[in-house]
């Protein structure tokens, strides 16, 4: 991944792909992108689970197209400034955390746990994430490794919720 700043503030696709500007952070843009996803997560968290999941599917499909177009416009395979994939990965991570869990006394613990779990899998890239990251190109490749990292992090949260860690 390369850090490219070719952000065009007149282009709505760039706003989305760059995580509303959070991907422009000079260091750790993926971490800043994930942090920027938290307020958006808090806005969609109260949705009923099927609506939340449906929104993630729609935003993922949109993200594949937007990230592909933006990467092509920047002339790079997977620029680190593109962080929409981190938004989606974090939203997926938080799937097991219902609005009920989120509003409980320890709700913020789940947000922090989700953030840490997602960043761990996104940075570490265990199999098959690393293979996908290396072999799948375009918008699908940009998005898919973070979708998988989000699924792995969601499994960790689900296990923690299921077995009563709080």
From TrEMBL:
Annotated TM spans: 40-66, 87-118, 138-161
Protein name (database record): Phosphatidylglycerophosphatase A
Primary role: Lipid phosphatase which dephosphorylates phosphatidylglycerophosphate (PGP) to phosphatidylglycerol (PG).
EC number: 3.1.3.27
Any single Gene Ontology cellular-component annotation: plasma membrane
Keywords: Cell inner membrane, Cell membrane, Hydrolase, Lipid degradation, Lipid metabolism, Magnesium, Membrane, Metal-binding, Phospholipid degradation, Phospholipid metabolism, Transmembrane, Transmembrane helix
Pfam families (UniProt xref): PgpA
Catalytic reaction equation(s): a 1,2-diacyl-sn-glycero-3-phospho-(1'-sn-glycero-3'-phosphate) + H2O = a 1,2-diacyl-sn-glycero-3-phospho-(1'-sn-glycerol) + phosphate
A GO biological-process term: phosphatidylglycerol biosynthetic process
Keyword Transmembrane: yes
Single GO MF descriptor: metal ion binding
Residue intervals of the YutG/PgpA domain: 15-160
